[in-house]
Specification:
The complex is a heterodimer of chains A (about 325) and B (about 325).
Chain A (H helix, E strand, L loop, with lengths): L4 E10 L9 E11 L4 E5 L6 H8 L7 E6 L2 E2 L5 H8 L2 E4 L13 H11 L5 H14 L16 H13 L5 E5 L7 H18 L2 E6 L2 H7 L2 E6 L2 E7 H6 L4 H9 L5 H6 L40 E3 L2 E3 L5
Parallel strand pairs in A: 3-8, 3-9, 6-7, 7-8
Antiparallel strand pairs in A: 1-2, 1-4, 4-5, 9-10, 10-12, 11-12
Chain B lengths: L2 E12 L2 E12 L3 E5 L6 H9 L6 E10 L2 E2 L5 H7 L4 E4 L3 H4 L6 H9 L3 H14 L5 H4 L9 H13 L5 E5 L7 H18 L2 E6 L2 H7 L2 E6 L2 E7 H6 L4 H9 L39 H5 L5 E4 L2 E3 L9
Parallel strand pairs in B: 3-8, 3-9, 6-7, 7-8
Antiparallel strand pairs in B: 1-2, 1-4, 4-5, 9-10, 10-12, 11-12
The chains are: A alpha/beta (about 325), B alpha/beta (about 325).
Chain lengths: ~325, ~325
């Protein structure tokens, strides 16, 4: 099987505010693949570069170097025609459905717009496709005539998902799709995303800071820290036996909705805060906060290597 | 333990629509009570009503609020102002937005003490150490934009607690923070509440946060308390259908990957849609005619557990 998405040694950097300083590397040499139908989770704390990576995959951010292949087509440095063709295969769902819909555009029009713009359907055929998409994401057909403000947050996110599905993309990139939603609505949207993956055989990249949510949706999970992948493993393996100290600390920090379990948990003390990507630590970027760091960690950056079904960057693994 | 805060029969309305209805609870010294619920359930308005910082569109239609034995609901604004920051403090979700961007953090903390900076400085430095800020002598000279979100929340906690208030209201204090920082801040709040005997009302939507630090929990739905009790009991034996469904609809680390989550059908009603009965009846799997017609009273189930459901005792 050829990968739907194949990212190789990707670097995304932004210019420093101070022109005399070197650019800030938000993504520092990331390599990953997504197979057809597979859901890959991308987790990490704010500032780890997960959104920069997602944005460069959909073409919203121009990487400085590296390669992004969408169905074997290079998109880094590609011309407009190639990019436009690529975007039909990769669609995105953003965090806040309130700001990713045009407040003055009716729901049906918004969902049908990708089809109209690409000349794939019009008139009655377009109308039928829109109604089918509404059914698919669990909205009522009469809601096509409503405006975004008439819907709840969860319903708006369903609209955004329907719009993303309109072109039958091979890859759906979701950046924190349920973070802005209420707890009781979150479950509805997560179930919908899992169902759509299974029904359409669509691959997805699921960016989130919430490890419990990612576990629910993803087959494999990549953990990022300061622009680099520190661990990438099948979900079952990663959650059962996290190998990287950062993954272990992240998992331990998630408060579990079970007071007895939560209070008996051994807390992995993760001192301090994530350092600035403008001035990343030497050696392993995590060594300044790592409870297990030894002398080599401050000097040599660990390479990402394979251990069983896990890719891991740690001297101690 | 002595009771610090009592709220009795608090009701609030916006333009005639009831948004908080007959809410009652008490918090003791050193205790953390969580008010948990989805957006629009009235948890933040309840906190604002205690501080008497309600937006002008919200009217308090009834309710008695007592702080350390003194009824404060009828106090004049002048007297309230003397209490805020001294006897009762509040911290918010976005620490960076709650701090003054044009003042150094040291001076902001000192302001609560109502002392000139030079006199307040030693107390401020001690307080910063207590909230885990390293190198406080340098930090006090910095501005909020120079600090991270987690550090700003520590500053907020320092300025809220420096005058040793009896009550701390924390409105989603860790929602804007990363999980590893959230764990640090929750540990800090728990430790300070115990050491200083501060009563804490923690407002959150996150059942994980409740399980982590709350001694007791009040589950709110559409402006009413659905269930209240000790955290261990409410989680182990939820009695209200809303609490039960809420607990099963949360993704957990221990779940099977891609397993289906339980779903609460429908949406939280808006205040205009509230009927005369139980406000959860439109989404409740047990609801019958009585639920739609009359409000279930909060019924005590044990020493410290109560729930408002007509089905209590009939369905387990």
């Amino acid at each position: 099987m050829t990968a739907v998405l194949s990212v190789h040694d990707l670097i995304v950097s932004y210019p420093s505010r101070d022109r005399n300083r070197p650019p800030i590397r938000a993504v520092n040499g990331v390599t990953l693949n997504i197979q057809p139908g597979e859901a890959l989770g991308l987790v990490g704390e704010s500032g780890c570069g997960k959104s920069s990576l997602a944005n460069s995959i959909v073409g919203l951010v121009q990487p400085s170097s590296g390669s992004i292949l969408v169905r074997e087509q290079e998109i880094v440095g590609a011309d407009r025609t190639t990019l436009r063709a690529m975007r039909a295969h990769v669609q995105m769902v953003f965090q806040d459905p309130a700001t990713s819909l045009n407040p003055r555009m009716r729901i049906g029009t918004a969902i049908g717009e990708p089809l109209l713009v690409r000349g794939l359907a019009r008139g009655a055929a377009l109308h039928d496709r829109v109604l089918a998409l509404l059914d698919e994401v669990g909205l009522r057909r009469d809601q096509a005539d409503m405006l975004p403000h008439q819907l709840s947050g969860g319903q708006r996110q369903r609209v955004v998902i329907a719009r993303a599905l309109a072109l039958r993309p091979a890859l759906l990139v979701c950046d924190e799709p349920v973070s802005a939603l209420d707890v009781s609505v979150r479950a509805q949207i997560l179930n919908l995303l899992v169902e759509l993956q299974a029904r359409n055989g669509m691959a997805s990249l699921f960016v989130s800071h919430d490890l419990a949510v990612v576990r629910h949706v993803c087959d494999r999970v990549a953990v990022m820290y300061l622009g680099e992948i520190v661990e990438l493993a099948p979900a079952a393996t990663l959650y059962a036996t996290p190998r990287h100290p950062y993954t272990a600390a992240l998992l331990a920090a998630v408060p579990e909705p079970d007071p007895i379990l939560q209070r008996s948990k051994v807390r992995v003390p993760l001192a301090g805060e994530i350092p600035s990507p403008a001035n990343p630590p030497s050696g392993c970027r995590f060594h300044t906060r790592c409870p297990k760091a030894i002398s080599i960690c401050a000097v040599t950056p660990p390479a990402l290597r394979h251990i069983a079904d896990t890719e891991i960057a740690c001297h101690l693994a | 333990m002595s009771t610090v805060l009592t709220v009795e029969g608090l009701s609030l309305s916006i333009a005639g629509a009831s948004v908080v209805d007959d809410v009652s609870f008490a918090v003791s010294a050193g205790e953390v009570l969580a008010l948990v619920g989805e957006s629009g359930c009235g948890k933040s308005l309840t906190a604002s009503a205690i501080m008497r910082l309600l937006p002008s569109s919200v009217r308090q239609t009834s309710g008695r609020i007592t702080l350390a034995g003194q009824e404060i609901s009828a106090l004049p604004e002048r007297a309230m102002r003397a209490l805020r920051g001294q006897q009762m403090s509040m911290i918010f979700q976005e620490p960076q937005a709650a701090l003054d961007p044009l003042s150094t953090v040291g001076k902001q903390i000192a302001e609560t003490l109502r002392l000139p900076w030079q006199q307040a400085r030693p107390t401020v430095l001690r307080m910063l150490e207590e909230v885990g800020i390293s190198d406080p002598a340098r930090r006090v000279t910095e501005y909020p934009f120079e600090l991270s979100g987690g550090m700003c929340q520590r500053i907020m906690i320092a300025s809220a607690l420096i005058s040793r208030p009896q009550l701390l209201l924390a409105d989603e204090p860790t929602t804007a923070l990363d999980v590893t920082i959230q764990a640090q801040i929750l540990d800090l709040l728990r430790r300070l509440a115990l050491e200083r005997g501060t009563a804490v009302v923690l407002i959150t939507h996150d059942m994980g946060v409740v399980a982590d630090i709350a001694d007791r929990v009040a589950v709110m739905y559409a402006g009413r308390i659905a269930e209240i009790g000790t955290t261990t009991e409410v989680f182990a034996q939820p009695r209200h259908p809303y609490t039960k469904l809420l607990l099963t609809s949360i993704p957990r680390l221990s779940d099977q990957p891609k397993s289906e989550l339980a779903v609460i059908p429908g949406l939280v009603p808006t205040p205009k849609q509230f009927g005369p009965g139980c406000r959860f009846n439109g989404r409740c799997p047990n609801a019958d005619a009585r639920c739609a017609k009359s409000v279930p009273p909060l019924e005590t189930l044990g020493t410290d557990h109560a729930t408002a459901c007509w089905w209590t005792g009939r369905v387990t």
